[in-house]
């Protein structure tokens, strides 16, 4: 039984949580409003729940880089996470979980994050996930 806020799992695509940035991955700020997701852009995609990866819902993600052809993105939250480990405040929200996804997994584009805020996130991600 689905929760009222739950969205159906897409028939294709594979959004998966990752905990490290693989060697060869890039973190860069390169938004380009061309209809494709680029680092620095906020997009919406189906994200699995931590407790049950077969269930989930559409959530906003900040695209932070690429691992080959796949996108690296951080889940955004509108909840106040002040003082919680792993969350970086961006204003009215923060992030914690990192995902890898394909362009086809994007349901819609939202906005572009300012370069200064993106630099803060990229530095925190690099410090936390690279050896």
Number of H/I helices: 1
Q: State the CATH topology.
A: SH3 type barrels
Q: List segments where confidence is low: pLDDT < 50 over at least 5 consecutive residues.
A: none
Number of strand elements: 8
Q: How many angstroms does the end-to-end distance come to?
A: 41 Å
Outline type = globular
Strand-residue fraction?
35-45%
Order of helices and strands: EEEEEEEEH
Q: Evaluate the radius of gyration.
A: 14 Å
Q: How would a crystallographer describe the biggest sheet? A: 8 strands, antiparallel
Total domains: 1
Could you name the CATH class? Answer: Mainly Beta
Fraction of helical residues: 10-25%
Mean pLDDT across the residues is 82
The CATH level-2 architecture is identified as: Roll
Secondary structural class: mainly beta
InterPro entries: PemK-like (IPR003477)
Protein name: Growth inhibitor PemK
Pfam families: PemK_toxin
Overview features:
131 residues; mainly beta; eight-stranded antiparallel beta sheet
How would you explain this protein's 3D organization?
- Strands 1, 2, 3, 4, 5, 6, 7 and 8 form an 8-stranded antiparallel beta sheet that branches.
- The protein has a single domain (16-129), classed as SH3 type barrels (Roll).
- A hairpin with a 7-residue loop joins strand 3 and strand 4.
- Helix content is 11%, strand content 40%.
- It has 131 residues and is mainly beta.
- The chain contains 1 helix and 8 strands.
- This is Growth inhibitor PemK.
């Amino acid at each position: 039984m689905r929760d009222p806020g739950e969205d159906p799992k897409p028939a294709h695509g594979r959004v998966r949580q990752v905990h490290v940035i693989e060697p060869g991955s890039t973190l860069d700020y390169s938004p380009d409003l061309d209809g494709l997701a680029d680092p620095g852009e906020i997009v919406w995609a189906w994200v699995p729940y931590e407790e049950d990866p077969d269930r989930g819902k559409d959530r906003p993600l900040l695209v932070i880089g690429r691992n080959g052809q796949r996108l690296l993105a951080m889940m955004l939250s509108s909840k106040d996470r002040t003082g919680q480990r792993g969350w970086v405040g961006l204003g009215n929200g923060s992030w914690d979980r990192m995902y890898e996804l394909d362009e086809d997994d994007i349901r819609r584009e939202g906005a572009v994050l300012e370069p200064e805020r993106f630099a803060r996130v990229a530095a925190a991600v690099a410090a936390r996930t690279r050896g």
